[in-house]
Amino acid sequence: MTAHSDNHDWLEQVKEVALDPDLPICDPHHHLWDFRTGATQPRYLLHEMMADINGGHNIRSTVFIECGAMFAQDRPYAFRPIGETEFVKGIAAMSGSGMYGDVRIAAGIVGTVDLKIGDESGDVLDAHIEAAGGRFRGIRLGALWHREEAIRNHRTNPPEHLLLRDDFRQGFKHLAPRQMTFEAWLCHEQIPDVTDLARAFPDTTIILDHFGGPLGIGSYAGRQDEVFEAWRGHIDELATCPNVMAKLGGLNMDVNGYHWEARPQPPTGQELADATRRYFDHTIEKFGVDRCMFESNFPVDKLSCSYTSLWNSFKIMTADYSRDERAALFHDTATRVYRL
To answer: Considering the chain, what percentage of its residues have pLDDT values greater than 70?
Structure first.
């Protein structure tokens, strides 16, 4: 039986028809988990994801991004994340059977390695690659840190400047020889750390998650224009690094401060587009469509909107783009970067 999100009845108030239903989509950023206490959807496995993506959009493939699910507790600490990769490989195999439709869930898998362990990172990466059955594409190690208690650090409680540390970089150097990517997840004030990392490792593909996390809560509440200006300056500099790609999405979390979840009804695709499009427009302008990819960040963004409305918002924002530009943003950049 498919499990519903805690806000299922609220989301059901807005039922949209998928726009441009034939446009092929690769969703390069979603999670899978179970028993996730405090999440909008505590259980999000294959059936739950299929219920979301069957809303009318032409989802062809997806990329799973680490979320601390199903770590193997009976292994040495550094190797526990291999359990997550094994778990996702099983779901990918279920999807690959074709019994659940044509979409290929977790065609690419991005796991995690605590790169602060230095050279041992190479051994853990090799274990991920072996466990994933040809699907492993890179890692994410959350770097989101903030001095304010109202802004939650990443679940791994990283140090303030994780990406600048020597021990982290000792592990990071093992990514490029294996053609592994790195996902950068932090807040907008930390984007210069990504720029420094990208320049130090020009042969490693780095993917900026969720626009670099523009903050909208705590002391940043009510300062949307000020935050945007600060973010824009950091993005302009980061975009000069050709090895950095940008994920367009993940703006509907509580940390972003739009508070959609507090409204009587969820937002439509048009409302989402109107509220957030300046981030999309500027990033696409600076990075170009061949370095940008739309993402769902589900089920995290399900706090605020439905899967169908979210992808409608992306289509609304790109209604005037050429066919080739839309193909890149919705599908081709992601499948190229993740080698799907």
So the answer is: 100
| CB neighbour list of residue 76: distance below 8 Å, 6 or more residues apart | none
Alpha-carbon distances, residue 97 vs 29, 130, 169, 175, 220 (angstroms): 21, 20, 39, 30, 47
pTM (2 d.p.): 0.98
* The two three-digit tokens of residue 301, written as one number: 């963004």
- For the ranges 150-154, 186-190, 273-277, the lowest mean pLDDT is seen at 150-154
Q: In the chain, which residue ranges form alpha helices assigned H by DSSP?
A: 8-11, 46-53, 82-96, 121-131, 166-172, 191-200, 224-238, 269-287, 307-317, 323-327, 333-337
Sign of CA dihedral 264, 312, 317, 334: positive
CA distance 209 to 248: 8
What are the phi and psi torsion angles at 266 (to 5°)?
-70, 160
What residues contact 285, with CB distance under 8 A and at least 6 apart? none
Inter-residue contact 79 to 34 (CB < 8 Å): no
* Angle between helix 269-287 and helix 307-317 axes, rounded to 10 deg: 50
Four-point Cα dihedral 328, 202, 187, 117, nearest 10: 120
3-state SS string for 297-331? CECHHHHCCCHHHHHHHHHHHCCCCCHHHHHHHHH
Q: What is the pLDDT of residues 41-90, one digit of tens each?
A: 999 999 999 999 999 999 999 999 999 999 999 999 999 999 999 999 99
pLDDT in the model for residue 1: 82
Contacts by 1-7, CB closer than 8 A, 24 or more apart: 2/47, 2/48, 2/51, 3/41, 3/42, 3/43, 3/44, 3/47, 3/48, 4/41, 5/40, 5/41, 5/299, 5/302, 6/40, 6/41, 6/42, 7/40, 7/261, 7/302, 7/303
Strand partners, 244: 206
